[in-house]
Amino acid sequence: MKQWTKLKEHLAYDGWRKIIVRRYELPHGQVADFDIVGNGPYVTIAAFTSEKEVILTRQFRAGPEQVLTSFSEGFIDQGESPEAAAARELLEETGYRAENIQWLKSRRSSYSTETQHFMLATNCHYVQPPEPDALEDIEVFLLSVEQFRALLHDSKDEAFINIAAGYLALEKLGWL
Amino acid sequence: MKQWTKLKEHLAYDGWRKIIVRRYELPHGQVADFDIVGNGPYVTIAAFTSEKEVILTRQFRAGPEQVLTSFSEGFIDQGESPEAAAARELLEETGYRAENIQWLKSRRSSYSTETQHFMLATNCHYVQPPEPDALEDIEVFLLSVEQFRALLHDSKDEAFINIAAGYLALEKLGWL
């Protein structure tokens, strides 16, 4: 594949999210602008208790304007490792501490600068009430691995957003 | 979970992508603005030939500024069904026609208006050269199901972006 030649870029929107407009010369000579969402690296934490329960959260989300189900997720702070970010976000959002946290893999995105890091947290124990950010209103709940596997491919569900992280965790744990 | 009360919203950026700023009153009384990416519904097509090969594409992507690997994907046109969009995008991008196309499930997104529809295309046959959009520069390639399963959880790969669609297709086909 030929790389594209970037002619210029500028920040077109600078809010909580950013839009970067990048102008490229394509391999066949066309010149075109692309709107890119500027987003930092983040972790998605597939977390399991020592009783093989899956730790999930429910939150109202402003994109679809409905309650979605997810693993704990959060941006990685400057200088923080994915493992440390995962431990911090899991504890803040759910009150669970993981005995083991491991990075599984990462994934880039077509029209965003983001990198998603898939993390696996095992032997998690509830240690304290969640301490979410001021703007987070999070409900924590548990599913058995069997219930969770069914949720992953439930055609009636469009609210669980971390399907990739779920399958990658079950694959790593040998539970597929 | 309590729903949030939307106080107002406005279009803050209106390019190829859109940013919508939504102001909510949260359950505990705080008022806050959220930047939402405005994006239409799209299909991701996990496509297989009659010889159990997986049909994949490589393209330079302006978000990470590198070549990423994906299934065929594309926006659903106004009034088009997900099945019709999947057949159209698969043929345009890869030159393959599917004998069977089925919807597997959909997924919403936290900070975008989009809906991703996971589609399964089976018994695909190569019928004509790809006819990509003017700004697409796409390379088509095939993997065996075994190679594809390994790619899904390969920790050294961050370029394949449709991990959820891949596992959902293998789950549906009974190949996990």
Q: Provide the residue-averaged pLDDT of chain A.
A: 96
Main β-sheet, spatial strand arrangement of chain A: 7-4-9-8
Quaternary arrangement of the chains shown? homodimer
Biggest pleated-sheet summary of chain A? 4 strands, mixed
Let me know the CATH homologous superfamily of the largest domain in chain A. Answer: Nucleoside Triphosphate Pyrophosphohydrolase
Helical/strand content category of chain A: alpha+beta
Tell me the number of structural domains of chain A: 2
Per CATH, what is the topology of the largest domain in chain A?
Nucleoside Triphosphate Pyrophosphohydrolase
Distance between the termini of chain A: 35 Å
Topology order of chain A in helix (H) and strand (E) letters:
EEEEEEEHEEEHH
Shape of chain A: elongated
* C-alpha-based Rg of chain A, rounded: 19 Å
Describe the structure concisely.
Two copies of one chain form a homodimer. Chain A has 176 residues and is of the alpha+beta class. In chain A, 18% of the residues lie in helices and 47% in strands.
Can you characterise this structure?
The structure is a homodimer of 176-residue chains. The first copy, chain A, is an alpha+beta fold and 176 residues long. The first copy, chain A, folds into two domains: 5-38; 42-173, Nucleoside Triphosphate Pyrophosphohydrolase (Alpha-Beta Complex), CATH 3.90.79.10. The first copy, chain A, contains three helices and ten strands; from the N terminus they run βββββββαβββαα. Chain A has helices at 82-94, 145-152, 163-173, and strands spanning 5-14, 18-25, 31-38, 42-49, 53-61, 66-70, 72-75, 96-108, 115-126, 139-144. A four-stranded mixed sheet of chain A has the order 7-4-9-8, with helices on both faces. Chain A is elongated. Chains A and B meet through strand 1, strand 2, strand 3, strand 5 and strand 6 of A and strand 1, strand 2, strand 3, strand 5 and strand 6 of B.
